[in-house]
Amino acid sequence: PAYSPPGENVGSTRMADRRPFVQILCAFIALCSIEGHSLDNRIHSFVVTGESRDTLSVRLPQRKASCSFDYMAGQPQHENKPSEDKAEVRAEDVLEKLTGQCTQGQSGYWTYQICLGGIIRQFHGADSYMLGTYSRVEGRILKYNKGLPCDPPKNMAERQVDVSLACSDKLGVQLISEPSTCKYTMTLVTPLVCSDPSYPKLMQSAGSTVPADDGHEEWLLEIRETEDGKIACIAHSTEERLSGSQLAFKSFSLKIDHDESSANIEIDSAKARRMGRVPLGSTEIKVNQDSISHGEDFNGKLSYAEVVTKPI
Prior knowledge:
Layout lengths: L10 H22 L10 E7 L3 E8 L4 E9 L17 H8 L3 E6 L2 E6 L3 E6 L2 E12 L2 E6 L2 E3 L3 E4 L1 E8 L4 E9 L2 E8 L25 E10 L5 E7 L11 E10 L8 E8 L3 E2 L5 E3 L3 E4 L9 E6 L3
Parallel strand pairs: 11-13
Antiparallel strand pairs: 1-14, 2-3, 3-16, 4-5, 5-6, 6-7, 7-8, 8-11, 9-10, 12-13, 14-15, 15-21, 16-20, 17-18, 17-21, 19-20
């Protein structure tokens, strides 16, 4: 149509002519925003929750190849591990192994540092307060007492801290609170207790300033052809840059298939890693002719899996 200067009474007619197209476009955009939908069949978005199981697939039609990701979320079973690996972990044993090491975590304005067998202090800049000196173990609680007076001279009660233990992939401090005046609680997270399932699991890594999530993660499954004719299949969390996650997987399998059964699929490379881009060890994964899956030492933490075929 001819150009119409602003102000002429033709805008409503032109918009009316375009309305069906606009409505179709909006409907398409809305469709693409639906969870789990993909713009084409080479990539698929989905959400993994704390207790879920699913099998998803994507296709590369021009190469007659497909990729499937099968997973079960939840704490891993370790069905191939001997029962003695789940023996009780005592707080005394943890303390003995960590004595002399220090770690810290932040809660609001203050940073809290704990030195195992030493002291706990809170500090911000030049301000520092000693909250307690290690005293004893009571059950699974590390007791620290004889800290600085609470509010002298009005309140000369000594500060004290109860430190509980939880499983995580790195040493750190989480869940810091002051339930009553000058009486503190915090949780020391460490891999040393992860073999005992009775300890809580706080999967956020030490030192991370990212709050623990609510047990939901967005993932992508994609398949593509490389420049040298190989087929790559990748499943990964969109939050892999973070250092920790509350999610755990009981099992996973990432597999490449071909429409023609006679096609010879051979894996050229396969890898997997956990949050923080930490590679999984050789006993944590199992690489087959056409897939990668969890191994006997897989501990449930996964953020990325990839298989690449030799040229088909």
